[in-house]
Amino acid sequence: MKPAARLQSTIEILHTVFEGQKPADTITTQYFKARRYAGSKDRRSINERVYRILRHRAKLAWMADQVSWEHEPRQLVLIDCLLQDEEVSALFTGDQYCPAPLHPKEENALAVLSEVNIEKAPDHVRFEYPEWLDTDLRASLRGHFEATLNALNTEAPLDLRVNGLHTDPSNVIDLLQQQNIDVTKGEYSPYCLRSSKKIKLAGLKVYKDGLVDIQDEGSQLIALLTEAKDCELVMDFCAGAGGKTLALAAEMNNQGMLYALDISPKRLFKMRPRLERAGATNVELHPIKSESDPWLKQFESRVERLLIDAPCSGVGAWRRSPESRWKMTSELLEDLIGRQERILETAAHMVKPGGRLIYATCSLLKRENEEQIEKFLTGHPDYHIKPMSDVWGDVLHTPSPFDGNFMSMRPDLHRSDGFFCAVLERKA
Description:
With 428 residues, the chain is of the alpha/beta class. The protein has 3 domains: 3-121, no CATH class; 161-214, Sun protein, domain 3 (Alpha-Beta Plaits, 2-Layer Sandwich), CATH 3.30.70; 217-426, 3-Layer(aba) Sandwich (Rossmann fold). Helix content is 43%, strand content 14%. The strands form 2 sheets. Strands 5, 6, 7, 8, 9, 10, 11 and 12 form an 8-stranded mixed sheet that branches. The chain is globular, with a radius of gyration of 23 Å. The N and C termini lie far apart (66 Å).
């Protein structure tokens, strides 16, 4: 594909992304499946530009405002080309498969934009976040505000989790190296392997054979800190696509019973091929209607480990899903916080005396994390928090990188997505 044709593809993909019906990675995958003529260099170039624009959408939109442009894909791509010092007139030619040629008004606007200083933009533009989140982000990140937000605007590495049911990390490293794929060990999880480059896992034998799966290191740690080994009854309350379910099954070595619950049957049952590939045989998939589903009453005071990977704002995952930050609203955040409280309330009665409730999010907001735990403990004196350093030492046998009661991972400090985890124990 010619460079100009790649630009046109970028514009087409962004139109679909901005409709907000599907995640950007799903859209790009489907786009290229329908266009087999696009080579690997074409796909890489288009993906890089699509995600660069999504990560810098606030800056590009702010610049568009300086010349009264709409925030449409064509306009944002034009500004991106300008910022990349590309010859815009040579790319917007109107030739076959290429963007339409520049209008005189566009040429004049680009001349004005070439003199704009982005450093004069307000913080929510420079650091790429919705303005309504400013107070929450500053209160939550404090002295790490700029460093964390800058890290959330970078490209995330690919983290793999070695399946403990099959093999050990060193064996997988050797197998990957045989296919010219270099990975390094994660810093915290003993099962984490990290690649700075994207890998087509679907075609690799180590993936087909269930030796590895995709899972961020922070997410791996949450499953490990659940300490499900040797437990008879474990529950993944908000299982989603099943990343933590798979990790829990491996920790349990297929012993005991592991229930994976979710309100979306479609999302939950998509886990089946992953379970089969991984060789996980102790998992029961069960859709629930809500956090107050009557089916849950049978588990009252029975569950040894109950993991709540709570629905949340997803602030900590902005590296991987940069478009998601613009879908969140203050009303949706309040609704999520209410759901988190209701899920915790239901879960509180299901954990057996002496058992543990593990609350986790991929958010960095205190209102979804520390403040939720504070409210829960105030209303449930039969629970107490387990200091993270104690749990970490018991499970991982290494010095804990976290002081105090919680695991709070940040991309700028831990090179993981942003994650929060609290371990609560019900008094025996």
